[in-house]
Amino acid sequence: MDCLHEQDDLPPSQSDNLGRSDFSETESIDKPRHLAVGEVMKVLYEKECKRLGVCPVGAFLRAPGKASVELRNYSLGPKGAAALAVPLLLDSSVTSVDLEGNSIGAEGLRSIVGALLESNYITHVNLANNQIGHHGAQMVKHLLLGNFYIVHINVSENKFTDIDADIFAQVLKENKHLKEMILSKNDFGEHSGKVLGPEIASNDSLELLDLSWNQIRGKGAIAIANAVKENVGLKVLRLEFNGFGNDGGSAMGQALAGNRTLKELDLSNNRITDTAVRDMAAGLAANDGLEILKIGVSSFQLPSPLALVEAINRNETGALRLLDLKDVCVSQEFLNVVEEIQQSRQFKAIYGLKSKIRIIKPEFVGAVNPDGEETTAPRQVDDSQGESGEGDRNVGATVRDQTDKNAAAEQTNDQSRDGDESENRAVGTLAASLKNSEDENSPGGDSEDEVNQKEETEQNKLNEINDSEQDTGRESNVAKETTEKNPDGIGIENIGKASPSSERETTDSPVSEREVASRASEREVASRTSGKAVASHTSDREVASRASEREADSRASEREADSRASEREATSRTSEREVVSRASEREATSRTSEREAASRASEREAASRSSERDVVSRTSDREVA
């Protein structure tokens, strides 16, 4: 082990005191006047390492007295952290401590926190990836609520869960001096978002918050977005790899419309959808403070990036200078708008591949397409020529040809409908009357017997109409036969006395025949239509009945699922309370043991000092004698 031994330069009495000293005793050691402060820190550190049986870190020994202590990934462990706490406690020149990746655990963190609580100079602390867990979270809270000189804290990748979110929510509520907090790469979930959201909204001193690489989604994501809407101090918010999805993204878009202080927002890898992008575009159109927006590696389609840059272009007072759409495919129209923005201000866009699909935009958002559906996004047309100018020129012609074909087909359909309109008018009227009568008589649904009775009544009416029309047809046929047999009126008595009405009836017989045939065909079509309508109504009722049964079953399953979820939540809360109770009991026991250990140490120290005084007294007596 390559260790320095500057303690040989000290007087024997002071060297022995350093060898026997513990963590509390080092405070009373006088610094040797012939050594610099850095050299004294080296001596103290070596002594503590020797006492605890650990090897000193060469990086600390080679650069003592520096303002920043950077010991990343040195595997210090709990004892190594305890040895380092002694020089940190006494060195007033250190302002930054970086102990990331040293696996110090909760035990080692206890020594570091004890030193940091006594320091008025250290402002930046990095304790990331040290496996401190729930007990470590409580110690961090004790540190941040007991030392307001710390403005930057990094406790990422320390296995914090939703239970620990309440601890950090209390820190945000009571500490109004902290500027930057990094809580990334932990196991915070939906509950954490709901707990942290209100405290973020009310904390105006925090400027940077990193919650990336967690599992905040659903209502938790919405709570974080609402906090952004109300907060007036936060400048940088990192939320990548959380799963905000559609709800969280839409809520964040609405928050951007009302926020004026946020400068950087990272929502990459959050499964942002097209609906959420629409809301975010609306927010960007009204936001004048955001400078950096990152929403790359998401699941929205080709027109969404175009909507974003168009909103940025419309906002003349906007401050956005970087749009990061990493691995997102964009169109040529997107690139054209980006160039237009760059002509008027500083702007940069990061994106994935360029697509050969061109976008045909509607005249306005919410236009109605030929199918009668509302258009909420630009349409896409495949540009087979890729990026060449020829393909660009052919797009307009292709669209115009397709439009002409659609117009010709529509005109043909109109003519066909005009031809069938007169034939179907009577049928439609009869079917409508049948439907209205059924709706009036059975508002809540008819039984099968009532439906059969109504069908029989309608059939009887149709039969009566058919009989009357057949009688009229026979009379007209008889008149026609008489006219054909006696074209000159021979053999017919009282020919001169024939009434005008009989003459008109004989003359109009061909017209009546056409009317009778037309009415018969109408009755036949109406009969078929009524049968189909009745069958359709019956099938509709059966479908409605089955749908109601399915809906009842679905509601029952939902109630059962809700009941099970509530039971699980109650069980989870009970277990959480038990865990917290046990943790508090362990903490109380630990504190008691610490007090006992401290008391024993003080007793030993007093005994040691008393024995030393006795030895000194005896020595002096011998010298006097």
List the SSEs and their pairings:
Elements: H1 12-20, H2 37-52, H3 58-62, E1 68-70, H4 77-90, E2 96-98, H5 105-117, E3 124-126, H6 133-146, E4 152-154, H7 162-174, E5 180-182, H8 190-202, E6 208-210, H9 219-230, E7 236-238, H10 245-258, E8 264-266, H11 274-286, E9 292-294, H12 303-314, E10 322-324, H13 332-344, E11 348-350, E12 357-360, E13 367-368, E14 374-375, E15 379-382, H14 389-441, H15 448-485, H16 500-507, H17 509-624
Parallel strand pairs: 1-2, 2-3, 3-4, 4-5, 5-6, 6-7, 7-8, 8-9, 9-10, 10-11
Antiparallel strand pairs: 12-15, 13-14
Helix pairs in contact: 2-4, 4-5, 5-6, 6-7, 7-8, 8-9, 9-10, 10-11, 11-12, 12-13, 14-17, 15-17
Would you kindly provide a written description of the structure presented here, covering whatever features stand out?
- The chain is 60% helix and 7% strand.
- It is of the alpha/beta class.
- β2 (96-98), α5 (105-117) and β3 form a beta-alpha-beta unit.
- α10 packs parallel to α11 (274-286), α11 (274-286) runs parallel beside α12 (303-314) and α15 (448-485) runs antiparallel to α17 (509-624).
- The longest helix is centred in the C-terminal third of the chain and has 116 residues, at 509-624.
- The radius of gyration is 45 Å and the shape is elongated.
- Mean pLDDT is 76; it is low at 1-34, 362-400, 437-446 and 482-511.
